[in-house]
Amino acid sequence: MRAVSPSTMRQIDRRAIEVYGVPGIVLMENASRAVAVAVRQKIEEVYGKKKSPRKVAVVCGKGNNGGDGFGAARHLANMGFEVMVFLASPFNEISGDAAVNLKVIKNMGIPVLELKGDGESEKLRGLFDGFSAVVDALFGTGLRGEVGGFHKKLIEAINESGLPVIAVDIPSGICGTTGRVLGAAVKADVTVTMGALKVGLLLYPGAAYAGRVVIADIGIPNRVFEEFEADGCLLEPALIKGYIKSPAPDAHKGDMGRVFILAGSKGMTGACALSGLGAARCGAGLVTLGVPESLNDILEVKVTEVMTLPLPDTGEGTLSEEALKPALEFAQKCDAVVVGPGLSCHRETAKFVRSFVSEYERPMVIDADGINNLSRSPGVLKDAKAPVVITPHPGEIARLLSMTPREVQENRWDVAKKAGETFGCTVVLKGARTLIYSPGHPVYINPTGNPGMATGGSGDVLAGMIGAFLARGLDAVEAAAAGVYLHGLAGDAAAEKKGEIPLVAGDIIENIPEALKYLQKGEKVYGYEIQTYQG
């Protein structure tokens, strides 16, 4: 499912109006009707159809978002609701199509209360007492800068009302590109977004403020959307199912892909074991762990479904520079390599990683300490000969790009793109709504997963899963998308059985088979829903 930034959506709107001749007032009319329907549905859902209270507050700003609110007020009145409009801008600042709709509701006798500004901040307390629901049509995606003063107090009054809130296009105060809260933001139960998903509705914290998302068809010709590239793409079951092919009836283990995982150090044997089992569960025919030789006996006992290859050791339970030659020789027999889980940042290990990444030419996943060992020499990653997938968490990508983790989290979208463009690789930026970016592709947004997966070893499992899909023949972007989506889906299945708090990385591995079954059957995705409204 495509997602667009506010700037792209404005271009789409403009083209529909100026080139295809769809009047802006028509788009606004369709948008306002969709909002009114969503309000009615939410009220009936909360209060019941037979005894639904009938009083709705519509909070409007001065732009087209406010115009959608004025139109929604008219439709709600026609549905039999008692409606009151609260105008957070002076009457004389309303213009264009919004002014047309404002004039109509005034002619209908719908009360419009102009809120004067800071001088009335105290009057906002209890402003929505006696209402059934609040419509947020204050700012939309056109917001510039931080929300403060009177508007911040108004948003706080909406959030403190305790009423169902329906947001128009995007909750006011949420950045439509990054999902950031711009000073203050409306906490919506339902967001009716116009024409296409907005990126800010999919990224946290914006996703947490949006509630259930309804995409409204407002009459923009499909051809217009086809003329613009999507900024993002929400991963969906049908797409991932197409990537994961069933084996041929006469397939043998050599046909299913060989994965070599360079991982582990003293105290970190669990990381390589989890990565190996993640790869095996995703259908890799042969999985081998390349580990420091002093740890080999431990791993041979710890894992039975995967093999081990002891490699020269520093004497401190880490890979030495001397491991390079045998590792490269073995890797040439494999279809994909994973570098990094639990590997350590020992001085010799770092040299090994840099040399291996420079010389290996087949698909490769670089995770955890693989990334950390490249952070001081990121040019090695840029010059890699192999198709590379990196799987950093915010701290790891911050080190690669000489940023702070906070800067990463404030704009994950642009950071993922920057890393992909800088290093010429596929980037999996892990976190709530993991992002996948590779140059020449939209940013893929993953809807699966839950907070219980924020546990040690979860990322090691993911690295192995992506490695398996690379070995099975998917390209870097496809393998990353399949691994990330399935990893989150397995975590959701585990959380449904055990809860989020006790979830551990091994639970994710155990539930990969169930996640694959869900994909094959086309059943629901746990806990995530986007609706469409066709009008």
From TrEMBL:
Cofactor(s) required for function per UniProt: K(+); Mg(2+)
Keywords on record: ATP-binding, Isomerase, Lyase, Metal-binding, Multifunctional enzyme, NAD, NADP, Nucleotide-binding, Potassium
Cofactor: binding details: Binds 1 potassium ion per subunit.
Catalytic activities: (6S)-NADPHX + ADP = AMP + phosphate + NADPH + H(+); (6S)-NADHX + ADP = AMP + phosphate + NADH + H(+); (6R)-NADPHX = (6S)-NADPHX; (6R)-NADHX = (6S)-NADHX
Binding-site positions, (6S)-NADPHX: 64-68, 140-146, 169, 271, 342, 393, 460
Pfam family, any one: YjeF_N
Residues that, per the record, bind K(+): 65, 136, 172
UniProt-listed Enzyme Commission number(s): 4.2.1.136, 5.1.99.6
Annotated residues for binding of AMP: 430-434, 459
One annotated GO molecular function: ATP binding
Domain YjeF N-terminal: 9-226
YjeF C-terminal domain boundaries: 236-519
Keyword ATP-binding attached: yes
Gene Ontology annotations of biological process type: metabolite repair; nicotinamide nucleotide metabolic process
Quaternary context: Homotetramer.
Function field: Bifunctional enzyme that catalyzes the epimerization of the S- and R-forms of NAD(P)HX and the dehydration of the S-form of NAD(P)HX at the expense of ADP, which is converted to AMP. This allows the repair of both epimers of NAD(P)HX, a damaged form of NAD(P)H that is a result of enzymatic or heat-dependent hydration.
Similarity remark: In the C-terminal section; belongs to the NnrD/CARKD family.
Protein name: Bifunctional NAD(P)H-hydrate repair enzyme
Species of provenance: Caldanaerovirga acetigignens
